[in-house]
Amino acid sequence: MIGPDGEIRDRIWLGNYGEQVAADWLRAKGCKLLAKNFAGPKRGEVDIVARDGKLLLFVEVKTRRKESKIRPLDAVNREKQSLIERGANAWLKQLGSRDLPWRFDVIEVYVEDGVKPEVNHVKDAF
Fold first, then answer.
1. DSSP state of 67
2. pLDDT tens for each residue of the chain, 126 residues long
3. 3, 21, 26, 58, 108 from 10: Cα distances, Å
């Protein structure tokens, strides 16, 4: 992507942008954001922790350029899932309970210069 200043955006910028798009999208759908970039011990990590009513969401955000041949969901491999699961377990441990409904979601964000990003919410992704 190219910014308004003509600078080419790197993949770190793209990932941060996608996370912000996903967070805004979740809020617009009525979810309450509880944390962004939650890092638990043992390398656990969750991009977004949110609540949809009584349901707790552990969300991985993957952003790709619209023309990418690789679907964002495909980047959430077993290793990445393990990191997210460790982060979710750390979050649940902080709550002191696992007796609440929760799930793992992936939000795919597709971007293209000069076009509003597209969001695809994959519920119960793994």
1. T
2. 665 566 777 888 889 999 999 999 999 999 999 999 999 988 899 999 999 999 999 999 999 999 999 999 999 999 999 999 999 999 999 999 888 999 999 999 999 988 999 999 999 999
3. 10, 17, 24, 26, 18
Q: How many CA atoms lie within 13 A of 27 on its CB side?
A: 10
CATH topology of domain 11-122: Trna Endonuclease; Chain: A, domain 1 (3.40.1350)
**Region of residue 90 (phi > 0: left; psi between -120 and 50: alpha; otherwise: beta):** alpha
Q: Which two tokens stand for residue 62?
A: 């993957």
Question: Residue 120 and residue 63: Cα distance in Å, rounded?
Answer: 10
Question: What predicted TM-score, i.e. pTM, was given to this entire model?
Answer: 0.91
**Which whole-number Å values give the CA distances from 81 to 37, 76, 97, 104, 118, in the listed order?**
15, 6, 21, 9, 23
Tokens of 70: 């690789």
